[in-house]
């Protein structure tokens, strides 16, 4: 593996150092089956200022074929090397418990490749895929459609949040200084590139939920500085304490441990292979529920969006039914420290169930919603608007999910959750299954099985969540949109 070359001579030494760090971080990305070191890490030149008006953030249909769009180009901007090294040290010292080895799947016809990617792998996946496109289509910051801020936002959250509980940090890790450096670098990049395009042309991916960044990247001061210039990618848009001022926020699907092989986005008739597999499953259970009885932390359980009152209610109802008829419902209860290896049995149960309950937990959204769609299990949600931003008019959520009002259940108004789901007609169930089969591959992150496959397929349009993101960005830079 050789370091990439750069035409920006004055940035050569910085590039060499950044490349060295990228190689050391490659171990994590091996979890995705590829190595980050194969991607181009470019330090781009500061572009000239362009004073043009902001356009709207435009939705794009699921059915828009890549032939109607132009693949956007990217230039990757790396933070200062010392900041990268400090964040890396924070991540190593303050990371949560390590991931358990991924299972091989619960059955011989299991269509997914399993990897140790959890729901907070978004930033790593996006960094790898956009760097691959940047390598295949080298460009300068002046020419690129988008500038991607390659900041390890998971490490930022670890350093500025988790690490505050540690009293054994080395004196070289000054959290206050690191917070200042993160903010200064982001604002410096935004300010020097403000107005370079008529649309928000900088991209920043968050690894965790936006609450984890309310005191740093998404503080009110920072949002004021970046709101009209940066497309922020995240798995959830539900601030706890600060007002949301961002003009362009793309709600992405939660990454999963389940992946399909990466493939090109090509027009096809009929069901995909995944859709065929979903329709062929024996849905012997009416309902599946897997979740925690308690929040991950006392602070998390106090969040304004938490759903533990609803979870307690659902748990009580489901246990009563399960006691009288175990064949009706499958239950998996976890604690915050339950081993991730148990996910294999959860995924199997979901693939054998008609409905999968997805109540809020520490925050409004759940990884289980995306997993439900992959496994062909109709998600049941309890708060309106929770996932609407993930679709932006591409598909109506009611085509995929069942909505049951949280307050009605808690107040005892009407039937309980089991009776309501028993009352859903077979016709509606079939329509929702067809809708899920149509979108399921769009909400997963395709897995390149080799470096060569990454270079070949990952540099173009792909039939997965990253492919949909590229369509959104292509639509954004087009004044016409779709």
From TrEMBL:
**Example GO molecular function:** glycosyltransferase activity
**Domain Exostosin GT47, first and last residues per copy:** 251-411
Xref: PANTHER family: EXOSTOSIN HEPARAN SULFATE GLYCOSYLTRANSFERASE -RELATED (PTHR11062), XYLOGLUCAN-SPECIFIC GALACTURONOSYLTRANSFERASE 1 (PTHR11062:SF117)
> Which protein family is it in?
Belongs to the glycosyltransferase 47 family.
- The protein's name is Exostosin family-domain-containing protein
Please tell me the species this chain comes from: Leucosporidium creatinivorum
